[in-house]
């Protein structure tokens, strides 16, 4: 997945077969950084052509490393702002691993952000921070820089939106090479109408968009060494006009005021001059100059240290020479004493003979005294150098005192961090209290649920009672049906008896016909035959059932 995403971002064709072949014999567990780097260099990085979106590549690298390294403590900047600070760090850091940003580049970045916020730079505050930093290490890592900016130490009194806008402005300048941007009016080439556009000036191009969100791009003005910019007089009701001449097109633009007009003309002229000279953008050239200056200062520091070592070695050699001279003087003095003793012994005998030799000896002694004086002068110079070394030792002692003071300041900061941890513990206890309240609320909800369950049980019991009543009514209906069958049989018997009597009467009299009474109410017919009750009785029973059902519910 990592290799495929890298190839996608870098516009390199992905070869899964080569990936499988490369790691085919690697069955010893997960691949380490050292194990993955040969494949990354050979099959991905060597194929990069440079035509990829560097911001998207940085965003992918940020996704890989931010979750593991980004501080969990709350920051005054958003994750997007932290990403932009991380990209700026990669631009300003030194060209050696592990990457760090030196105090000079930290000061440059914080100054840029402070100027973008419209605040004043606190040089004294940064000097104290720089002293404390130099006593412990050479610079900051990317995550320490994000913590420094996100802590608000150098942006006190500024809200999150102001800090975010300042970081975005510095990001546009240093990473996206945006030299200047803003709204201006542009005259169309076809319809000759004036439209407001958002212009973005980069080292070799001017792009213009519908608005500052950069979502809808309307066109580009390609800059080269042959381009030029000229101020135009006001015309057609438009003021603050200037003209950009390129090889194939000419663009008329109107700024909002004279100051903006002059700023844009100077910015475009500076960009064209850099293109003619083949120079890098100003911020990249300034970064290179700062880097060269740091290298020069470092070389001078190393040369000074070398000279100090040579001076110390020379002092040691001079001391050895002085010791040798002292021994020679002592030996010469011993020899002179011996010769003096011999001379005294033979003085009377050899006074006349050695008078000339005595004068010669005086001259030799005078020369030796001159040598001793010269050596004394050299000794005085040596003592002067020793005093200078003692003065340097005192300065080192003062530097140690400053370091002790910085450590005391660090202890104060640690106590402050401990107090913040205690506050965080108190907040955590408050959150646990809220959690208990939520559990109590859940228990109350369970009680209401139990009450609803009881009501449901009561309704089910009422339904069972209604079912039992329905069964009772069914039994009563069956009994009524049986009674109806008995009555029907009796009626059939009576009808048979009546028919036989009518036949007999008709046979004997012929003209007599009995008039039988008809039914007062029409009979109801059910699925089992004629009903044993009337329609009025059925309505009465239905009302009774409905009343019992309403009572049970």
UniProtKB/TrEMBL annotation:
Cellular component per GO? cytoplasm; lamellipodium; nucleus; plasma membrane
The record's keywords, sorted A to Z, are: Cell membrane, Cell projection, Coiled coil, Cytoplasm, DNA-binding, Membrane, Nucleus, Phosphoprotein
- Locate the coiled-coil region(s) and give their ranges: 283-504
Originating species: Spizella passerina
| Major subcellular site | membrane
The UniProt function text for this chain reads:
Phosphatidylinositol 3,4,5-trisphosphate-dependent guanine nucleotide exchange factor (GEF) which, independently of RAS, transduces signals from tyrosine kinase receptors to RAC. It also mediates signaling of membrane ruffling. Regulates the actin cytoskeleton as an effector or adapter protein in response to agonist stimulated phosphatidylinositol (3,4)-bisphosphate production and cell protrusion.
GO molecular function terms attached to this record: DNA binding
A Pfam family: PH
Indicate what this protein is called per its UniProt record. Answer: Switch-associated protein 70
Q: The PH domain covers which part of the protein?
A: 177-273
**Where is this protein found?**
Cell membrane; Cell projection, Lamellipodium; Cytoplasm; Nucleus
Q: Which Gene3D superfamilies match?
A: Pleckstrin-homology domain (PH domain)/Phosphotyrosine-binding domain (PTB)
Quaternary structure, from the entry: The SWAP complex consists of NPM1, NCL, PARP1 and SWAP70.
Q: Which PANTHER family match?
A: SWAP-70 RECOMBINASE, SWITCH-ASSOCIATED PROTEIN 70
Domain of life, per UniProt, equals Eukaryota
**SMART domains associated with the record:** PH (SM00233)
Record has Hydrolase as a keyword: no
């Amino acid at each position: 997945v990592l290799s495929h995403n890298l190839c996608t971002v870098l516009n390199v064709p992905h070869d899964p077969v080569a990936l499988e072949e490369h790691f085919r014999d690697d069955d010893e567990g997960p691949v380490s950084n050292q194990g993955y780097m040969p494949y990354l260099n050979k099959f991905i990085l060597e194929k990069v052509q440079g035509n990829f979106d560097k911001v998207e590549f940085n965003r992918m690298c940020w996704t890989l490393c931010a979750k593991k390294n980004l501080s969990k403590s709350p920051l005054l900047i958003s994750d997007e702002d932290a990403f932009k600070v991380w990209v700026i760090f990669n631009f300003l850091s030194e060209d050696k691993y592990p990457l760090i940003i030196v105090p000079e580049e930290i000061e440059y970045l914080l100054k840029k952000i402070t100027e973008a916020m419209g605040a004043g730079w606190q040089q004294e505050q940064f000097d104290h921070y720089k002293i404390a930093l130099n006593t412990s290490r050479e610079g900051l890592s990317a995550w320490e820089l994000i913590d420094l900016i996100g802590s608000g130490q150098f942006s006190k009194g500024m809200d999150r939106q102001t800090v975010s806008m300042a970081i975005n402005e510095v990001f546009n300048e240093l990473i996206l090479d945006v030299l200047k941007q803003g709204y201006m009016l542009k005259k169309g080439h076809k319809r000759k109408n004036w439209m407001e556009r958002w212009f973005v000036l980069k080292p070799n191009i001017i792009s213009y968009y519908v608005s500052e969100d950069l979502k809808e791009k309307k066109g580009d003005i390609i800059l080269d060494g042959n381009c030029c910019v000229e101020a135009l007089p006001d015309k057609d009701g438009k003021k603050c006009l200037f003209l950009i001449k390129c090889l194939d097109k000419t663009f008329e633009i109107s700024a909002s005021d004279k100051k903006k007009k002059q700023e844009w003309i100077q910015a475009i002229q500076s960009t064209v001059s850099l293109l003619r000279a083949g120079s890098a953008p100003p911020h990249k050239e300034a970064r290179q100059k700062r880097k060269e200056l740091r290298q020069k200062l470092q070389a001078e520091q190393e040369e000074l240290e070398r000279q100090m070592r040579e001076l110390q070695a020379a002092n040691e050699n001079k001391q050895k020479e002085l010791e040798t001279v002292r021994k020679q003087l002592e030996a010469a003095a011993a020899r002179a004493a011996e010769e003096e003793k011999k001379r005294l012994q033979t003085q009377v005998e050899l006074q006349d003979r050695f008078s000339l030799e005595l004068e010669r000896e005086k001259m030799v002694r005078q020369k030796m005294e001159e040598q001793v004086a010269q050596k004394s002068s050299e000794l005085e110079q040596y003592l002067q150098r020793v005093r200078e070394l003692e003065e340097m030792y005192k300065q080192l002692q003062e530097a140690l005192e400053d370091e002790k003071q910085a450590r005391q300041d660090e202890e104060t900061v640690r106590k402050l961090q401990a107090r913040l941890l205690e506050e965080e513990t108190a907040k955590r206890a408050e959150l646990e209290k809220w959690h208990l309240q939520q559990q109590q609320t859940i228990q109350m909800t369970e009680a209401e649920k139990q009450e609803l369950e009881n009501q449901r049980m009561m309704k089910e019991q009422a339904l069972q009672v209604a079912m039992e009543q329905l069964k009772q009514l069914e039994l009563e209906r069956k009994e009524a049906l049986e009674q109806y069958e008995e009555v029907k049989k009796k009626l059939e018997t009576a009808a048979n008896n009546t028919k036989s009597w009518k036949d007999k009467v008709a046979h004997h009299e012929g003209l007599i016909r009995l008039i039988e009474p008809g039914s007062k109410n029409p009979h109801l017919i059910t699925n089992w035959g004629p009903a044993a009750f009337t329609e009025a009785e059925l309505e009465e029973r239905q009302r009774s059932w409905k009343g019992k059902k309403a009572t049970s519910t």
